[in-house]
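Example 3.2
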Amino acid sequence: MAIDLTYDPDIEKLIDRTRAFTREHVLPIEDRFLGNVTDAGGDRLRVEMQAAAKDAGVFAPHAPVEYGGHGLSMSDRAPVFEEAGYSLFGPIALNLGAPDEGNVHMLAHIASAAQKEQFLAPLARGDVRSAFAMTEPAPGAGSDPSALTTAAQRVDGGWKINGHKWFITGADGAGFFIIMARTSGKPGDRGGATMFLAPADTAGITVGRHIGTLDKAMIGGHCEVFFENAFVPDENVLGAVDEGFAHAQVRLGPARMTHVMRWLGASRRAHDIAVAQVAQREGFGAKLGDLGMVQKMVADNEIDIAATRALLTKACFELDRGGHASNETSIAKTFAAEAIFRIVDRSIQMCGGLGVSDDLPLARLSREVRPFRVYDGPSEVHRWAIAKRTIGAAKRALREAQS
């Protein structure tokens, strides 16, 4: 039996509306401000674009229907998110950018009814933004989350949190934080973490400096955040105490895939621009697109786009079946992060001097997609995890054969 890779007619209509909205309404704003969301107006711009997205019927495709979204599965999100990602500002406009999209997904699956009302509902509507506070300066949690040093101590009625986080995306202007803190054990232990929900105005939470990075289209920046005896009541524990790492898996795999979806859209835009350029520009007695070396770059881009989509489709299929899909998401994320950068880089090369200039968006697209090889786990860490699972399975098979 053939595998059905078609989409429901309603999804196809949403894809078309998203494509039109992103290209007609959002792209001109991105181009005007060269992809810098702060220069474009930050939260003021976000509110304006999201109001327009609601009017266009494309807002929050991932959010539960009861909170104003379209309730799409992971598989159905892929083409919609890709079309939104065709502009760097598209995810912001549709309220499907990081970290809010991943936080909506996790809250919908883990939060209590009261937590959903207080935190998920306003986030899904676009009334507030959020931040996921896990990464710490060395020797704390980075690629190795078990190194978590931020600690939560039980007190009467709740917990007091102390610690230092950094590279917290969207922290400046966030309405609330999801905080990963150690509630048992010591740094290096695999368990013992808990997630907490805290309004941003909680006493003891301070957003520090913006850490300058290559990318400029993440609203709210990448910031240092300090927790000094920040009190969180018991009712704001997200999930179960000491089960934070396990609960976070609900977010991490899907969030990696939605990054792939969005940045695949950005790389497709780069490819489209380059193909249009080489199809019309003449050099060395022919159209550039008729030259073999240029054709190789075009073909390699097409291959990387198709392969990324295929791996993404497989990972989303496994996630929709209810599994963590750890291997599938690691494979798709690692390949995609590198392929997406290759696509944009080749596109720059095909466009020559224009490719590295502000006359085309390619240079800024390159800056935006390069960090993906680090964000959500460096490629090297994912390769290690993939190899560890594969070798572990082989060892188990040998033991079983010998028993």
